[in-house]
Amino acid sequence: MKRIFNLLFTTTTFFEAIPNLLGNNSNEIQEQITIWLEMDETERNQLLNHSIDDLEITQRTQICLEKAKIYRLSDLVSKTENEIKNIKNLGEKSLTEIKEKVHELGLHFRH
């Protein structure tokens, strides 16, 4: 915790601290944060309210999500990656497909 505190207060902005805090994934995470922050609340709510049909994922992946009662993006991102991984009949390819689509939208799973 002290390391995080020192990094945050020795840089001029939060975004300058991200590479030091997160290492190799920092640019990717910073891009997602920027996309999300640039949206207003209405845009975020509209995005989260989209059906998973709009993700353009394979039918197999979509059926797995629907059987798990995941119908909207808000349902999807309210889950952890581990919860998604444990959905019955959802394989590694489907998980990768979902993660890529979620990332493209600037979203992420719950931690």
Automatic annotation (TrEMBL):
Q: What is the recorded name of this protein?
A: DNA-directed RNA polymerase subunit alpha
BP terms from Gene Ontology:
DNA-templated transcription
The reply to whether Hydrolase figures as a keyword in the UniProt entry is no
Concerning SUPFAM superfamilies, the annotation shows: C-terminal domain of RNA polymerase alpha subunit
Note the Gene3D superfamilies from the entry.
Answer: 5' to 3' exonuclease, C-terminal subdomain
> Is Ribosomal protein among this UniProt entry's keywords?
no
Q: Show where the RNA polymerase alpha subunit C-terminal domain sits.
A: 41-104
InterPro entries in the cross-refs: RNAP_asu_C (IPR011260)
Q: Name one GO cellular component term.
A: DNA-directed RNA polymerase complex
Residue ranges the record marks as coiled coil: none
Q: Which GO terms describe its molecular function?
A: DNA binding; DNA-directed RNA polymerase activity
Task: Tell me the domain of life.
Answer: Bacteria
**Alphabetized Pfam families for the sequence:** RNA_pol_A_CTD
* Organismal lineage: Bacteria, Bacillati, Mycoplasmatota, Mollicutes, Entomoplasmatales
